[in-house]
Amino acid sequence: MKPLLEVKQLSLAYGDDSPVLADVSFTISEGECLGLVGESGSGKSTLAKLILGLEKPDQGEIILNGVHFHALRGRALRDARKQVQVVFQDPTASLNPRLPIWKTAVEPLENYPEVVPAFLSGVRDSSRNMAAVLLDKVGIGPELMDRYPYQLSGGQRQRVAIARGLSLQPKLLVCDEPTSSLDVSIQAQILNLLKELKDELKLSYLFISHELASVRFMSDRIAVLKDGKLVDVFVSEDLLEDNRHPHTRDMVKAVLE
Ligand SMILES: Nc1ncnc2c1ncn2[C@@H]1O[C@H](COP(=O)(O)OP(=O)(O)OP(=O)(O)O)[C@@H](O)[C@H]1O
C-alpha cells in the first residue's frame, strides 16, 4: 500500500538534555492505523507534535504524501497542515468553553473556506447545516447542537472534538490518548466510533496510548517507543509472539498481571 506518512530518522532534544526522540523511523499507509505505545515520558506526545508541525526536529524528515513537511512555507504549508488533524486526550481543554459546540465543530472550515469535504458537499454554504452533518457523524443529535461544552458529558465532548478533527476531511488523524480521560464504560464507545469513522472516511490514524489493550483493538500495526527510541514494530496479531522485543513482552506481562 502507498505510504501516506514517512517518518525518517527523527531526533529531538530539548536544550542540553538527553534526546526525547532518537532516530525514530516508521511509515503509515493509506487507510492504516498505526498504534504507538510507550510508558509515560517515552516521547509519544512529542512525536505527535512533530507530525502536527507544532515542533521542529533537530534531525530527520517527515514526508506526507511524498512532500517534505518541514521544508514547506506559506500556502504550501497551510495546505499540508489541513491533511493532518488531531484529537487530544482532554476534550475540555481542546474545546472553546465560550462557543456552542456546533461552532467549535466547524471552526476549522472557517479557516479553510476553499475546502469542501465530500460529506459536506450539499451543505457547504451553511455553517450550521455543516455542523449538523458533522455532529451526526459522531452521534451527537441536533438537540445538543446549541449546548456549551460544560453542558455535555466527557464522552460527548470527545465526540465533538472528533467531529472538529474530521471537519476538513484530513488524510491522517493523530489520536493522542483519546480515551484516557474518559470513564471506562465510555472508552469502548469512543474506540468503536473511531474505528467506524476510519473505515467510512478512509482515514489513516496514528493512535497513541499507554494502554496496550486499546492500541491492539484499534491498530493494524503497533510501534513501541522506549526512552525516545522505537524498539519494536509489528502487526497487531503478532503482539504475543515469542520474538517480540523484551520491553514489549514486559508491557504484555504487566497487562496480564
Ligand atoms: N517542551 C518541553 N521542554 C522540555 N522537555 C520536554 C518538553 N516536552 C516534553 N519534554 C520531556 O520529553 C519527554 C517526553 O515527553 P512526552 O510528553 O513526549 O512523553 P509521553 O510519552 O507522551 O508521556 P505521557 O504518556 O506521560 O504523556 C519527557 O521527559 C518530558 O519531560
Tags for this entry?
257 residues; alpha/beta; 6-stranded mixed β-sheet; 4-stranded antiparallel β-sheet; 9 helices; 24% strand; globular; binds adenosine-5'-triphosphate; ABC_transporter-like_CS
What does this structure look like?
By secondary structure, the protein is α/β, with parallel strands linked by helices. It contains nine helices and ten strands. The protein has helices at 44-51, 74-81, 91-94, 101-111, 127-137, 154-166, 184-201, 212-218, 246-256; strands at 3-12, 21-29, 33-38, 59-64, 67-68, 84-87, 172-176, 204-209, 221-226, 229-235. A hairpin with an 8-residue loop joins strand 1 and strand 2. Helix 4 packs across helix 5, helix 4 (101-111) runs parallel beside helix 6 (154-166) and helix 6 (154-166) packs parallel to helix 7. Adenosine-5'-triphosphate binds at residues 14, 20, 38, 40-46, 210. Adenosine-5'-triphosphate is lined by residues 14, 20, 38, 40-46, 210.
